[in-house]
Amino acid sequence: MLSVSDIEKTYDEQPLLKGVSFSVEENETVCLLGPSGSGKSTLLRIIAGLEEPEGGDVRWDNASLAGVPTHQRRFGLMFQDYALFPHRNVAENIAFGLKMQNLPADEIRLRVENALQTIGMTGFSKRKVTELSGGEQQRVALARALAPNPRMLMLDEPLGALDRALRATLSQELRHILHDSKIPAIYVTHDQEEAFAIADRLLLLHQGSILQSGRPHEFFHRPCNAWVARFFGLGNLIGGTVTSQVPLQVETPLGMIHASCQNQVPALGQHTTLLFRPSQARQAPTLSENKVTGKVLDQVFQGEKFLVSLFINEQVPLFNIMLPEPVSLGDVLAVNYQPTDVLCLNNGA
Amino acid sequence: MTATIRTLRRWTNHPVGRGLLLWLLPAVFLGYFFYQPLLALFSLALKPTPGFSLFALNFNRLWRPFSFTIGQATLSTLLTLIIGLPGAWLFTYFDFPGKRFFKTLTTLPFILPTVVVAAGFNAFLGPRGWVNLALISQFNLAAPPIQFLNTFSAILIAHVFYNTTIVLRVVSNAWSGQNLRLQHAAQVLGASPWRTFTEVTLPQLKPAILAATFLVFLFNFTSFGVVLMLGGPQFATLEVEIYTQALYLLNLPLASILSILQLLCTLLITLGHNRVSGLGDLVSSPPARGITPRKPGKALERVVLFVILAALFVLLVAPLASLAARSFVKLEPTRGERGTIERGLTLQFYRELTVNRRGDLFFVPPIMAARNSFLFALITIGLTLTLGLMVGYAQQHTTILNKIMDPVLMLPLGASAITLGLGFIIVFNRPPFSTLRFPILLPIAHALVALPFIVRTLAPALKNISPSLRNAARVLGASPLRVWREVDLPLLTPSILISAIFALTISMGEFGASTFLVRPDYPTLPVAIFRYISQPGALNYGQALAMSTILMLVCAAGIFAIEKLQKSEKDGV
Amino acid sequence: MRMNLIPLLVVIFTLLTTACTPAFKSAETQSITVMTHDSFAISEALVADFEVEHGVKVIFVRGGDAGTTLNQAILTKENPVADVFYGVDNTFLTRAIEETLFLAYDSPLLAQIPAAFKIDPGNFALPVDYGDVCINYDKAYFAAHNLPVPTSLEALIEPQYAGLLVVENPATSSPGLAFLMATIAHFGETGYLEYWHALRENGVAVVSDWETAYYTNFSGSSGRGPQPMVVSYGSSPAAEVLFAETPLVEAPTGSIIGPNTCFRQIEFVGILKNAPNPDLAKTFVDFMLSVPFQEDIPLQMFVFPVNPQANLPPAFLEHVDTPDQPASLPPELIEARRETWINAWIEVVLD
Predict the structure, then answer these.
(1) Is the interface score ipTM higher than 0.90?
(2) In this complex, does chain C touch chain B, defined as having at least 3 beta-carbon pairs under 8 Å apart?
(3) Measured between CB atoms, does B284 come within 8 Å of chain A?
């Protein structure tokens, strides 16, 4: 289906996209996740044909789309601000794409009616779009993008402008609508929860290239570098120097730590970052290996467990762990990490 | 005391009450300075006069100028749109060298007295103008091939010359503020560039185009100098008839009836415009992505661009340039051989402007005339902006009051300078105005003419300011005045600047009312120009052109200054 | 960013104060106000002398062209702006008299002025100057085309002069009206329309005002228009010499001086009824009839003084042609028939 290869783009003479490649398969919803300013929207605009890439290629079923103007690409794009036409009412907005295909009026009316039903807004057809609430506008924008049956749908932060509660319900709804329509989709967001909720596959865009791609849980279990771990907030990240490769030992402000590595083992003397997940801290005072000792600064009840913040020393003033039982502030605590639980990561960008 | 304050506060918080308070000053201003003189003149005119009876009136004398006025205004407006809209497109989407300069140039026709414009067109297209001379020498013709003066086309072309800038400014301002995403959305939904234009861009531009059309139509409708001087005596608009009847024949009853007819038409046009623009009254979200002009790319684009620019240049800039060029060209002393024009460059006309050869009491050095013009323009800007903002705020809520007041406000547009000038003379020829040596009535008259434009420019911008922005500022601790300064003012700046340019150009170029109201010790630039051109002699002619060139320069400087302010404003943010 | 407005305000304020300061000075001295038309001009030194001699300040108010100014004076006659009104001519004189605009004043200086100028027997309006509306021609054109310069009104309808004359619309221009009256004086009320019909057949060009006629249509001016003959003033050739870019020996244009080809306009001054300062006004009227002012007239306004004791400047004498037989009409007849003539003219020439 869609394949994007080596896309390059500069913005204000700064490289914005530095060789982005990925593909989207049939029935698949791909989430493009990245912090603001990472070039996500620009990438969508390039795929849509609204902007020209400076290098690389966008292909559909192996045919290059270079030179195909936007209006002949048959992609749907839902804009961050919805871009509803203020001079048209709800039905006229949804009908726009159908009208561009010069469909007969009867069919247009029927399909608009269906679209309104899908988004649960029957009876809204004559309303002015400027009078709609944010959520309603979002639905109309979605209906408008879907109505002409695009061969692929792109959504640019579609829930960005909405409040949290609405976002949760709408993202559920959106996933169902996308799956039911069987239209492949690229979904752009900076919000990881939203991405996890929607995506079949996730692409993490950072500093102009795709840092990691995979199913959502893979990012949790195997972040490819320290930046990814920090972006997802996976846990405590502590820097150190490799002192032994087998077994992997790292000298850190916490002391000598035994760790494991999923990819290439770093070289001796190399600087590296270790990930300590709060949930994997164990209270096993008998073990002396990978022991972390600190004073309790704070604790927060988080449903099933307590998130406890420890002060270790000047270099590590804050270290979070999860404990099943409450502790007292000011107590000195010691926890252990199994070497297999301490993940050694590239420093990344 | 506190009770009064409380009542006052309740009033100011209620939309209707606030509307009343905001309308107060503009209404008093209009009532005192516009409706009072107008009514005084009409009551004077409608006193029973021997030899004149309303019933014996030959309706042909009303119908002929009326039908001609409507016809020429419609045609001129269409032509102006045909020239102006592609221009607006060009100014919105493209950057090219000298764009700002060119844009300023297109504003200049607005300020020039008609007699000078006639001279400019004569220098350019007249029988001895540069185009005809070039054609004659190129093709060995016996007679000048282009007949321009005293034709109906001259009226149309001069109207296009004067008014294209309105379409350019109003439409391109709205256009570049359009949300680019809407166009992108349409393209993604399968609309070709042309359909995107017709289905999305054009409907969105409709209010701006209508507003511009309305203003241009009104200007053409009340056109005076162009018809009189370029069209010649066989053409007469209502305004020309009013002038003839009132000032030459002192037939005030007929002049008044014509004035009332003209005012009624203005009223109808205004109401019609309000109806149409009300339908397209869109409160769109502030543009997420405005249109940024770019350099022309493809060859075809360059060609189209060149054609439009060339057309604009020939129509708008060439007469101005011919005029300015003539102010530096000395003709040979033994003038009159009907062959070549010997050209010699000279600054003599400019030097002479500062020499009081005859020891004339009314001699005014150009710098003083420029100062006076500028001063009156500044007062006009101040007056119109103050009143315009008040009206703009009053109109934010649709109340019955606004529906009544809007036509009241727009009526001065249709009043002829002659009617207004005569009315002023009748009503204000007593203290305090007659004892003031400073002719404050002059900028007041200019403000009356400019106010409707300014309101038309400011009100939509005001409506577009989201109330939540003001609320946000208030919650953050800003006093009402501070809210205005921090939220409204920055958001209004572009519209305020456009208004200021309008007021500046209207005031700088106004001549009709000025001839009545100006004091000999405070002549404006157009009055000074007229003083030269109403006497025979090559030197006088040259000086009139030199003075016109100075007027253009002063005005261009004013426009540049105003736009510079806008730019530094942008940079400062 | 907001700071930018402050310099602007400062500039406005400074300009305002500098402009308004003279308004507050000189409130003590007495002043006399003279209402006049745009073409009025006078030497600065002369006014200064008058002000010193009589201890007054002279304020001039201008109200557009001659017709406009008169109508303004009529409209405000109950409460006049000025004391003295200058600039009504014999084509509008009767209107001013009938509207009782002026106070009668038998100036002692009237004795010096020839009776021919004293048209108003009641001395409500006193003659100041006179000039002739004549057809000017472009000397070079006639020389280059070996064409004789026409010497009579009748000659203008000959085919050799087809399309060579431009006139002003009498409804909007005072020289245009004067020329119409010259034709009426010559052909009579019964014959003038026929003459104009013939002129129209012969391609007479009509424009709205003198400025357009002279500078846009006339080939003898710097405007270099298509027509070599224009209805202008007898003094225009002198002005062409005086206001040439390079000194000229001979005027490039001349006036056609034939029987009734020129119409004589006499301009009058009057003291406005209800004038705030009638005594000062009398002093000023005397001043306008006296020799110093009368001698200032030719080179300021390009018309002749009515006082024969005034010496004419040589440049003026040399280049201004005066007709032996200028046309004229009785002012009462003009007042009674003006509108009828103009309307009839419009029907014949424009429709």
Answers:
(1) no
(2) yes
(3) yes
